[in-house]
Amino acid sequence: MFIIFLFTVAIIAAIFLIVPPAQGLGYLVRIIYFHIPAAWLSVIAFFTSAFYAAKFLKFQEIIFDELSARAAKIGFVCVIFSTLSGAIFSKLTWGAYWNWDPRQTTIFVLILIYGAYLTLRLAVTDLKIRAKVSAIYSLLSVLTVPFLIFILPRMYFSLHPSPIINSSGLEMDSTMLAVLIAALIDSTLIFIYLMKRRG
Amino acid sequence: MINKIVFENVSHSFANKKIFENFSIELDAGKIIAITGANGSGKSTFLKLAGQFIKPDTGKIIAFDDGKIIDKINLRKKISAVAPNMNLYSELTAFENIKFFVGLRDIVLNDTDEFFKRVELDIETKNKSVKNFSTGMIQRLKFLILLAIDSDVWILDEPCSNLDDSGKNIFLKEIKNSAQIGKLILMATNERDEAKIANEIISLPIH
Amino acid sequence: MKLSACQFISVIRKEFLINCRQRAIFVSMLMFSLTALACISLAIGGTFLESKLLSALLWIIIFFASTALDKTFDDEAITTLKIYGDSQSIFFGKMIFSLISMTALMIFLLPTFLILFDCEVKSPPILLITIFFGICGISGAGTLISAISATASIRSGLFSILLFPIILPIFLLAIDLTSAALLNFEIPISSLITMIIYDSILILAGSILFDYLWY
Question: Which residue range(s) make up the domain with A119?
Fold first, then answer.
């Protein structure tokens, strides 16, 4: 716990003190150290939630349902933060908050799925039934992901830097990349910590 | 045939109330087993556990078919039941209801008159819509479906509720006969008449 | 996973009998989709619409019409059904019945839509195939989602909330295909294949997951 905290502080310090301003973006580039890890976590959390959902259906132990729900809640918060920070970044770089870029669309679908899942959990009152139906829904929603990854890019034109960040006037130097990777590792550790707590 | 259903160290709670704690019992076929107890003592929960409609919080419930353990899906195929919350389709006629539920067990019945006689339900009601039935008639119809399906395990939750005396006598006679031919009969009841025909009584304590 | 013909037919026949007697179910489904159609056509009546927009509107109406499938598991005798019924025959019986009612609905809805918006369809077979496979997927997902939403104590709108993300791939592909069928563009055959694959996966997963829900 303490180590993760120190690590996080170190990364935040690095973002503000070490990372050079990117060409054409200036210090705005700092947003990506928040945006990318949040997006990363929301995807990780989505699959973690589905993994525990499958485990719940197999073993029928209520603890797996709790883990699945917790992952989904963390994922929901991350997906909201990631969308908001992405929208701000998008406004500052491309001039619009939203432009139906495939990746924006994917994250939007992820918000819908998380939202639907959490609504379902609120709507079902019986604990055992809730565990069962939300696990089923979680697994069903996972099916859409590979299809959306295949379909969306063909339907919506992309402005997004790919694969992580390149071209489009944004050159990643080695310091930036190192800090970004550290931020990703740190966010994953925070996620693991949150999943393990009390359980 | 189902030989027995065994509860092994079963603990179960319902609505935050412990109903069973480390409960073990063997329910044998060929006997009428009555489950008695005050309202809310868990009679219906006991039946649901025995039929593996719900899973106990801890412990195991095992069903044996010809001495071999069977899973809940195969057990379900050998259960028939009469319970207060089991509705029939009010838009369908008595015959259509029978045909449908029997059809779910792969049984094709063309002549149901024999069963109408057995539960003393007027044959003229056969083509009447169930929404015009009295509660007693519906109870007889549910019992008719149970007889027509003729499965190994009978789960009866207050089978004689809403019945007149002649209805009760028919039901109890049928229940006794089927226990004699080796069916496993579980009956939750608070009626003396019903408990009287039981070979074994499980009385659930009040919590 | 075994499916018995006798059980399967019993379920479909029962659904037919009840829906024929309670005509309110189908009539309200019909009127609901007509209302959705009227809502859109009155709002933008007379304006020329691009085929892309037209096909999007058509699928929005189909999506809202499909919310009628919400009632699939509001089964009067659900407890009795759970005791006597086998999960697979119930799932496929109810699913096929949903598909039949959606088809009946489309027989009414599609011509009305084409007339009200004065569409010219360049490739009718593609349009019909698209709609058929679209509603196949919607019926498959709808059956499972309706069984899920039936367990909830607060249900208003839950069905649509749960259904939409699941059928989103179908929704997007169908809009693409429909607009191609209206314009007679080169038919994006890969979209059609993707949709059929997604339908099959959805129905297969629905059937597997339904077992966990039923027992």
Answer: 2-196
